[in-house]
Amino acid sequence: MGGTEHGGDRQFVNALARGLDILRCFQPGKSHLTNAELSRETGFPKPTVSRLTYTLCKLGYLEYSENLGKYGLASGVLSLGYSLLANMDVRNMARSYMQELAEYSSLSVSLGVRDRLDMIYVETCRGSSRVTLRLDVGSRIPVATTSMGKAMICGISQHERSAVLQDIQKTDPDNWPRIQRDIDEALDMYTKQGFCINQGEWQPEIHAVGVPLRTVHGDKQMALNCGGPAYLLSRSRLENDLGPRLAELVRDVESRIGLA
Fold first, then answer.
1. Residue 33 is inside which H or E element, if any?
2. Any idea what DSSP says for residue 118?
3. Which of 7, 56, 201, 259 has its CA 20 to 30 A from that of 184?
């Protein structure tokens, strides 16, 4: 956080960027934060944070809890998020295909879009099994170590991919050699088979397969995954069954939006 200063770019509004960075601090498990905590999260000076939270409260994007002595997201943020989802037609086009695969596999099938170095779930479908993953719309997972994130990396241009990989390296230099190796393997698998898999790189108990998804305007860096408990998902099942089915699902969705 706090890495949004663009001193050499006269068109870049640093105050706006800082305000958005404040909003990004509120994540699952961090629903309410003090000015001091926001200052630590962003690296911004406390007086700057105080002015930003005051302004965001006035605009309806934050609210202050007297009982907690902390700030939390307000309905203004929800309205922005709802507008985005409501206008994301690909969700509606993909939902029936996703639900069909979820029921077939007894797993979770989700659609996500990139936000910096995270993928955010914008749609998710579950099979009837009680052991499917409990990640809902709005959940965040890392780009670097998940099948959905690696699939997104496989689907973007070489220029965009280089920028994302540089950011990952800067964020996690200690684990970069392993992450780079895993991403290289994902790129190779995607080139040969049309999907990439993840066997515990993010969480040891979770296995999944991912496929990138193109959209009409090409401005959404999206991907789908199908995943669940590791004990249900052998490499053979991922490669020979679910991977090809997820790739076919993506082809069907892309055909519906005129990209076939």
1. strand 32-33
2. E
3. 259
